[in-house]
Amino acid sequence: MSWTESGFGLNDYCLLGFIIITWGVFFYLPKVFSKQFTVLIFLYGLTVPSIIDNSFGIAPFDYYDIMDGPQYTGMDLVLYLLYPPYGYIFLYFFKKFCVKDKYIVLFITVATIISYCFEWVNHKIGIFHYKHGYQIIYSICFYLITQTILIVYYRKVELKR
Fold it and tell me: For labeling, which of 20, 72, 77, 151 is most exposed (least CB within 10 Å)?
């Protein structure tokens, strides 16, 4: 793995800006979860995208590249700093709005639309590069599944408290 890139461009600056914004939102929000559960949310936010990216972003699928190409660089790893605060923010609003069972599908749908739009922006500025027929619309399945699992996990933990 190379720790350097061919150049530091718009995608790198935007990624760093997005990270500052998401972590800023995380630190601004009231802490409504225990420190232990927050750590678990962050581990989920690091592990799941890593598994997905390393399953579908490399051979035999090789559907997309992150940042500046197929070679891993330091900025590819920095990308993963975006996901933990997103999981926290997602569950924060789930808890804040006291989402009832009949509205869970709506909540996940809205969160999926937001995630899809954010991925589209990331694609347009060069953070994600799709190839071999992959289209951004396919990511909706990943968002629906991962967000549903996160809510199920949260509800299991909350019921045990």
Answer: 20
Q: What does the alpha-carbon distance between residue 102 and residue 111 come to, in Å, rounded to a whole number? A: 16
Report residue 128: phi and psi, to 5°.
Answer: -115, 140
102-150 pLDDT tens trace: 999 999 999 999 999 999 999 999 999 999 999 999 999 999 999 999 9
Cα of first residue to Cα of last residue in the chain, in angstroms, is 43
d(CA 159, CA 161): 6
Q: In angstroms, rounded to a whole number, what is the distance separating the alpha carbons of residues 111 and 64?
A: 23
Q: Which two tokens stand for residue 159?
A: 């019921």
Place of tokens 């408290």: 161
What contacts 16, CB < 8 A, 6 or more positions away?
78
Strand partners, 129: 65
